[in-house]
Amino acid sequence: TNQYFNRGTCREIKESDYWGVIQAIKYLITQEKTTYSSITSEQALRLLSPHQFETLMFLIFINEGLFSPAWRAGSLPDVDIVAINYSRSKPIELGNPPIKFNKGEEIKFQIKRKESQHIKNADYTVALTTPNCKQVNKHVLISEWIMNVVKEQPKTVEWLNHSLKCFLDYAVESSVFEMVKQ
User: Fold this and answer.
1) Among residues 40, 48, 20, which one has the least CA distance to residue 159?
2) pTM of the model
3) What are phi and psi of 55, to 5 degrees?
4) What is the largest CA-CA distance in the chain?
């Protein structure tokens, strides 16, 4: 579901940029799951398609008790997901660094696989990786932030495990988190 691969006859697939795609190709060719002793948070999330990655973020918000009208914002420029705290009178804090959702507050997110700076139309930019794989500022959330939030949400963990099951052999591990090194 990556538009880059759907548009054009031939595309170069660099492992540095498309590690997850390479794993999918290996699986399709050999029908064998790759066994890893450990992978990084970024590698685990790179196994998701762009739509699955946005769905994961949508589930994080929904499973935290926030409202999101759709998993894709569609017509809002540079905004993929909107999350709103309609359900509680007190704020909801999510992640570290924390995002604080005050009652009735709408927070907008732009979801990117690779980004080095905050996208201005959104309140937060979610990126699998940044230069040097570091948190560049509190408005750019990276893979470690995502995985730490997911870890606290059993339903989201279940979804992620099912989504990655076709790529990773968890014969010994009961969850992708037993393979992810932080």
Assistant:
1) 48
2) 0.80
3) -60, -40
4) 53
Q: Which residue has the tokens 């470690």?
A: 144
Residues in contact with 115: Cβ distance below 8 Å, sequence separation at least 6, in sequence order: 125, 127, 130, 140
DSSP code for 168: B
| Two tokens, residue 157 | 């963990």
Q: Which three-class secondary structure string do you get for 112-148?
A: EEECCCCCCCCCEEEEEECHHHCCCCCCEECHHHHHH
Bridge pairing between strands 81-84 and 106-114: antiparallel
d(CA 23, CA 144): 21
pLDDT tens track for 131-157: 555 666 778 888 889 999 999 999 999
Q: Which tokens hold the place of 165?
A: 């099951």
Q: How far is CA 71 from CA 55, 61, 141, in A?
A: 6, 10, 18
